[in-house]
Fold this sequence. Notes:
This protein is of the alpha+beta class. The protein has one domain (2-126): Tetrahydropterin Synthase, Chain A, CATH 3.30.479.10. It has 2 helices and 5 strands, in the order E-E-H-E-H-E-E. It has a 5-stranded mixed sheet. Helix 1 crosses helix 2. It starts with a strand and ends with a strand. The mean pLDDT is 89.
Amino acid sequence: MHICKEFTFDAAHTIPGLPLDHKCSRLHGHTYKVQLFVSGDLDDLGMIADYAEIERVWRPIHDELDHRYLNDISGLEKPTTEVLAWWIFRQLRDLALNWRESTSAAAHARVTSVRVYESSTTYCEVP
């Protein structure tokens, strides 16, 4: 079983290496939508995880990405949607270990998938 919590953030980027006449080679921005999928078994409260805990884990990542130039963030020098989704997944995977240890209601839960929408019609999902 899994649950999903959705977030948004706004950021700008360029995609280095594209031809100069490609629209994504120029500075532009998106309102990204991020869906975090958390999987596990139901606990004694009938929950996989507390949505508030998922938001708490997301907050530092949001603060690092929101209203930023993504190319300036370590690991996002080529911030395609694919690279961004993988980067977010890695951040959450590491944070989830602390979350599981410190949150009894979600001790068994883990982030199993991250979906990042660059637009309403395009997204990348990891893994």
